Give the backbone structure.
Amino acid sequence: MKTTERRVKQNPAPTDELPYQPELIETKWQRRWAERHTNEPDLDGAARPFYNLMMFPYPSAEGLHVGNMFAFTGSDVYGRFKRLQGYDVFEPIGYDAFGIHSENYAIKVGINPAQLIPQNIANFRRQLTSIGGMFDWRHELSTTDPAYYKWTQWLFLQLLKAGKAYKKAAAVNWCPKDQTVLANEQVIDGRCERCGSVVDSSCRQSNMPPMLVSWRRKFAMLRGISSAGLTPSLIA
């Protein structure tokens, strides 16, 4: 009880006389977490590991939008809940920086993506740090980093060698302005949801993403990967 009372005195609830001052309170606790390595679990020796991954934001604009914060907050709350249950929670963070969104933004502002994306990532990092999430910044990554994507390329080659990846010609939703394929959900009344251009749904594309294996075949695929030279430890 004394400990609880002391914590309440140290962290009183905001009132009209004592308003909530995020620039002071957030900074204080984030500094405390950094000093104590609160969000840096022992990945090799965790007794109860829990992997709490939220999708990586894609730096396709100058900063995060409110939808990103909405999603990250929910994931972070769940991660904190699991940590209170005694789990060693690892909450990674990174930037899904490849793709049409980044390319379109670079074209729009007239800056080479190689220069633009690192600038955007720096601002994204600043924003993500300010919200005080449980991110383990020791393992921050970007999908445009050769040290990262060399492994996704290597994994694809193993799938290709094992016959689990292939190309297939199929009808796609093609946006002539954005020069990209759209998901069905991105086509509204026959038009691209982003730019409003009429979508060509008769276009047939052979250079499709070749990871067209259904989830029902997931475990069979993993067994095939193992036989292709991946060890169980690498699969895990």
Remarks:
- The domain at 18-144 is CATH 3.40.50.620 (Rossmann fold).
